[in-house]
């Protein structure tokens, strides 16, 4: 009897679970899209993976389910070049897809909106216009001497390793250099972490605080949990929230300091203030600090990761290293000829950089957007209003649907006239109105550092077996492993 009773209870339970799953699957009108059942009914898988391995998880889902995957109850992930254009680009007679709630977890959101997290397209356009004068070609030219000076400091410090015959950890030195560059170019503050050979105290935030933002993104998908965490501040969240507040206070202090010492130095703050003064615009200190915090966060580890990925793959392939060296050493007769103005058109160097950003997208999270009023088409499918969508930068650029031998580092694919790769599937700087405002600056930094490095030194990897992709951990941005090299200065 008890056997039949158990069977009956299980049957009823099974019926209700099945009914629940079917109802949840159909709730958002996305039941026709493939994906794991748990993702269709719960945010748990998305949030869990957001804490640890999101890009690699999404890459795996696309391999299993195809080019469109339902990754959360109300959310689809895409990988095609067309989806980049549909979701992020400008389309005639279409509304802009605004940023989704993932961006609410950024620094300063409790006080003010900023360029990265502003969701309203009209408000964002105003902010972008306000910051644009600092990122024009003219401004970049004014910043060239500042960039050159910091890169020369980096190369001089690295030369000491060559003299001492000790290996250097380029992962570390790239982060030190891009941090010094970002702070100097944003705020005019000198942090001298290259010379110190270790991160500036403020730079701690850029690993741990950014990681905290990633945790906040994961938690915010469960509003009750989010409230609980804010109220109880359990470790490590309590410490990380404190660190976020400290970072905000540091930014505000630095902006105040710079505002009380007006100078003609062409840093972002100076350029923005003078351009907007002419227009009669004024901004609160916390508003400016939020913008500069974004500029520093957005410009530091993205650039450092690109440098590290490029260096890793170049030093693990003798043919690529030889071709790159020949191009750089063939183009320049002396070190002093290498400058921000002369490194732009080295085709093989640019191909190496494009390939590094393809194989390891520096911004690896899904840049989520929301389908606007009355729904819209993405990749030919009409999606209901409010659906969350993204093209996954990591999965798209590493998909065999878009690239032949996608896990192979092959700069030549960027130089082939009639190659078969869908190069447009790799969009490391994003597309459309929210694309990277610092693209030219970031590329100038990367080109200059790599050109000077390979002109000055023969660079040799210490760990020939290092698996860069496996050892680089996702923590909203990437946490890089050590990249140890021997540097032999050329005579
Ligand atoms: C290799 C280097 C870089 C890469 C790959 C990169 C990538 C990106 C991407 C993908 C976005 C769009 C993010 C989104 O939609 O959520 C973005 C936005 C942004 N980036 Fe970069 N970035 C780099 C360097 C820089 C630098 C050097 C700066 C400034 C100094 C910078 C400042 C910004 C800002 C302010 C935004 C927000 C733009 C907006 O929403 O209007 N980035 N970046």
Automatic annotation (TrEMBL):
Its cofactor is heme. This is Cytochrome P450. GO terms for molecular function: heme binding; iron ion binding; monooxygenase activity; oxidoreductase activity, acting on paired donors, with incorporation or reduction of molecular oxygen. Heme binds at residue 436. Keywords: Heme, Iron, Metal-binding, Monooxygenase, Oxidoreductase. Belongs to the cytochrome P450 family. It comes from the Eukaryota. The keyword Protein biosynthesis does not apply.
């Amino acid at each position: 009897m008890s056997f039949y009773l158990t069977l009956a209870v299980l049957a009823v339970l099974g019926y209700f679970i099945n009914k629940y799953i079917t109802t949840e699957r159909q709730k958002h009108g996305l039941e026709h899209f493939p994906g794991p059942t748990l993702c269709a009914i719960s945010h748990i898988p998305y949030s869990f993976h957001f804490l640890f391995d999101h890009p690699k998880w999404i890459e795996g889902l696309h391999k299993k389910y195809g080019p469109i995957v339902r990754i959360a109850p109300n959310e689809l992930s895409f990988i095609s070049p067309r989806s980049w254009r549909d979701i992020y680009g400008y389309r005639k007679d279409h509304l802009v897809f605004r940023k989704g709630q993932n961006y609410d977890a950024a620094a300063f959101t409790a006080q003010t909106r900023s360029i990265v997290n502003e969701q309203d397209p009209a408000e964002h356009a105003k902010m972008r216009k306000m910051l644009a004068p600092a990122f024009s070609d003219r401004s970049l030219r004014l910043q060239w001497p500042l960039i050159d000076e910091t890169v020369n400091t980096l190369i001089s410090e690295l030369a000491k390793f060559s003299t001492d015959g000790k290996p250097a950890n380029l992962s570390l030195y790239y982060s030190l250099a891009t941090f010094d560059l970002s702070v100097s170019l944003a705020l005019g503050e000198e942090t001298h972490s290259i010379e110190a050979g270790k991160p500036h105290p403020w730079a701690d935030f850029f690993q741990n605080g950014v990681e905290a933002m990633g945790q906040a993104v994961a938690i915010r998908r469960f509003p009750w949990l989010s409230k609980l965490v804010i109220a109880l501040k359990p470790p490590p969240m309590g410490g990380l929230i404190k660190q976020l507040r400290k970072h905000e206070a540091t930014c505000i202090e630095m902006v105040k300091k710079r505002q009380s010492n007006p100078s003609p130095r062409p840093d972002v703050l100076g350029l923005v203030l003078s351009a907007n003064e002419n227009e009669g615009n004024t901004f609160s200190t916390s508003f400016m600090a939020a913008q500069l915090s974004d500029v520093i966060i957005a410009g530091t580890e993205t650039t450092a990761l690109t440098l590290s990925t490029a260096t890793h793959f170049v030093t693990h392939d003798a043919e690529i290293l030889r071709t790159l060296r020949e191009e750089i050493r063939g183009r320049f007769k002396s070190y002093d000829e290498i400058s921000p103005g002369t490194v732009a058109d080295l085709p093989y160097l640019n191909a190496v950089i494009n390939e590094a950003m393809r194989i390891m997208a520096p911004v690896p999270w899904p840049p989520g957007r929301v389908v606007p009023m009355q729904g819209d088409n993405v990749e030919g499918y009409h999606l209901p209003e409010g659906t969350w969508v993204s093209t996954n930068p990591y999965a798209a650029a590493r998909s065999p649907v878009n690239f032949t031998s996608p896990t192979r580092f092959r700069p030549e694919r960027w130089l082939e006239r009639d190659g078969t790769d869908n190069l447009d599937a790799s969009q490391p700087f994003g597309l459309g109105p929210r694309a990277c405002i610092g693209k030219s600056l970031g590329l100038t930094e990367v080109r200059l550092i790599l050109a000077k490095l390979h002109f000055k030194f023969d660079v040799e990897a210490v760990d020939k077996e290092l698996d860069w992709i496996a050892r680089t951990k996702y923590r909203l941005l990437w946490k890089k492993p050590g990249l140890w090299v021997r540097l032999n200065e050329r005579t």
